[in-house]
Specification:
The complex is a heterodimer of chains A (253) and B (262). Chain A is an alpha/beta fold and 253 residues long. Helices cover 36% and strands 24% of the residues of chain A. In chain A, the strands form two sheets. A six-stranded mixed β-sheet of chain A has the order 6-7-8-3-9-10, with helices on both faces. Chain A has a four-stranded antiparallel β-sheet with strand order 2-1-4-5, covered by helices on one side. In chain A, strand 7 (163-167), helix 6 (175-191) and strand 8 (195-199) form a beta-alpha-beta unit. Chain B has 262 residues and is an all-alpha fold. Chain B is built from nine helices and no strands. Classes of the chains: A alpha/beta (253), B mainly alpha (262). The interface between A and B is medium-sized, with 27 and 12 residues.
């Protein structure tokens, strides 16, 4: 018997500031898979991630995490469920009043199950995994963009959530740093046995990380396919996106 | 004309919406205070931020208000041969009105703005969402300790304002304006009652609540961008100050009924 999907979205609609951004998204994500969601800027990819995390509620539709529909739950009931999820925000969203060590330790301290000495060891281990050892005492303001993302990744993954979400993990990074983050995400997914959902327009990263790629187009999932199929697709919408071909009508002045 | 009506209607609806959100924030905070363990470390840190760092502003405000009030009273009462009334008038005014209101206005300016700016910045940099994503309920983690800190700090700051005002009034009235010191103290103690003291402290607590809730609400409900943070900060100070001044009238009315002057 096949395992049920870890995540099911059914007919998700969302209008924000008068714009109908999600227009009926249906998506199943299998346990343990690496799903990459691609789509144009402003197309609702980050909004979709926020619905999965329960940070936003859809106007219509269902968001099932395992056997719970997040839409029927209030903020306080979703909070404990989020311990099984992790999210890397686009700019890291590190707590700027805390040191790197405090940021990474945050979830462990909040859970209150570990002794301070064990938390310290776990934080050092997490920082080593993201290739930033001995940075515990630094403040987020002292870090570069790539370092912030790595620290944020260590913070989100330290509790080994079942479902990890990445919002544009390589945006704003140089190609070498982007590749290193991509490899790190893939490695963490394997080592910690996590289901990954990655939102990106970086196709090099997408091909490297994905088991399946879903394309969000005009508020709906346009297609879901393995990376090779997407890469060689003749569909004009997919082809234009993955090859980065603009049309005259795309130029907005 | 239609535009004016629309604008007034829009502002009124906005006011009702904000009022509703503040009531919701209030009930949510109260629920968090009863349901979750209190974060004493955070509360102490916030008390330091709210209370300790406001001391200089509060001492200056209280002292100079007491001093100028004593001066004005002496000018009015002196020709009538009522110099000894300066002490009790200063004391009762400081206890009942000037102490709590001035402390609240200073705290609204100093602390309310900083609370709103901090929360608004956290919101626009996604730190609030990160907190939620890390399975922490923001009202419990951020708002409850700040509300408690203001509830504890405000009566202390009000007491300090009152104390400084009365002392400064004394040191201006007695050595400078040559009011009799013995009568000054005797009359101050004679005409200041427990109800005056309680009025000041109760007002302090209520104003603390008002400033904390309005400032936190403004911070949490900010729109995106630096402009949003600026607007949230300004509105936190202006709205807190206005609500303090308006509610002061009604609270005074109510407290005068409950705690009449002896």
């Amino acid at each position: 018997m096949t395992k049920p999907p870890i995540l099911r979205l059914r007919g998700v609609h969302k209008t924000l500031r008068g714009q109908h951004i999600l227009r009926g998204v249906d998506l199943d994500i299998e346990d343990g898979e690496n799903m990459v969601i691609i789509g144009r800027s402003g197309g609702g990819k980050s909004v979709l991630l926020r619905h999965i995390m329960g940070l936003l509620k859809p106007d219509k539709g269902e968001v099932w995490f395992r056997d719970r529909n997040l839409v029927d739950m209030d903020e306080e009931s979703i909070t404990p469920l989020r311990r099984e999820m992790g999210m890397l925000f686009q700019n890291g969203a590190l707590f700027d009043s805390m040191t790197v060590g405090e940021n990474v330790a945050f979830s462990l301290v909040e859970q209150g199950k570990m002794k301070p000495a064990d938390i310290k060891t776990e934080v050092a281990r997490a920082l080593k995994i993201v290739d930033l050892p001995n940075q515990e005492q630094k403040m987020p303001a002292e870090l570069s963009g790539g370092m912030r993302k790595r620290i944020a990744l260590a913070r989100a993954a330290i509790t080994r959530p079942a479902l990890m979400m990445y919002d544009e993990p390589t945006a704003g990074l140089d190609p070498i740093m982007a590749d290193s983050i991509t490899k790190l995400i893939a490695r963490l997914g394997k080592e910690l046995d996590m289901t990954n959902i990655v939102v990106t327009h970086d196709m090099i990263s997408a091909y490297e990380m994905a088991d399946r790629i879903a394309m969000l187009h005009e508020g709906k999932i346009y297609t879901i396919a393995p990376p090779a199929e997407i890469e060689h697709s003749d569909d004009p919408v997919i082809k234009r996106f993955v090859k980065g071909m603009s049309q005259a009508s795309d130029a907005v002045f | 004309m239609l535009g004016l009506v629309r604008s007034i209607g829009g502002n009124f609806l906005g006011f009702l919406e904000s009022a509703g959100e503040i009531v919701f924030l209030f009930t949510d905070t109260m629920r968090c205070l009863t349901r979750y363990r209190w974060r004493f470390k955070h509360i102490i840190a916030q008390i330091h931020r709210v209370g300790v760092s406001s001391i200089v502003v509060i001492v200056t405000t209280g002292s100079f208000t007491g001093a100028v009030f004593a001066t004005q009273m002496q000018y009015q009462f002196g020709p009538l041969g009522m110099n000894s009334a300066v002490g009790p008038v200063v004391a009762v005014s400081m206890f009942r009105e000037l102490g709590p209101v001035l402390a609240a206005l200073m705290v609204a300016g100093r602390v309310g703005s900083s609370l709103a700016a901090e929360l608004a910045t956290m919101k626009i940099t996604e730190q609030l969402d990160a907190l939620r994503a890390l399975a922490v309920y923001p009202t419990e983690y951020l708002i409850a300790p700040r509300v408690i800190a203001l509830l504890i700090s405000m009566p202390v700051l009000v007491s300090l304002t009152i104390g400084c005002g009365i002392m400064a009034g004394y040191y201006v009235a007695v050595p400078v304006l040559e009011v009799d010191g013995t009568y000054y103290w005797a009359n101050t103690l004679k005409f200041t009652s427990l109800s005056d003291v309680l009025t000041g402290l109760i007002k302090g607590i209520i104003f603390g609540f008002i400033i904390a809730l309005i400032s936190c609400h403004k911070g949490l409900s900010t729109s995106a961008g630096a402009e949003g943070v600026g607007r949230a900060t300004t509105e936190a100070v202006v709205n807190s100050s206005m609500v303090v001044l308006i509610s002061n009238f009604f609270i005074s009315f109510l407290l005068n009924l409950i705690l009449p002057a002896d």
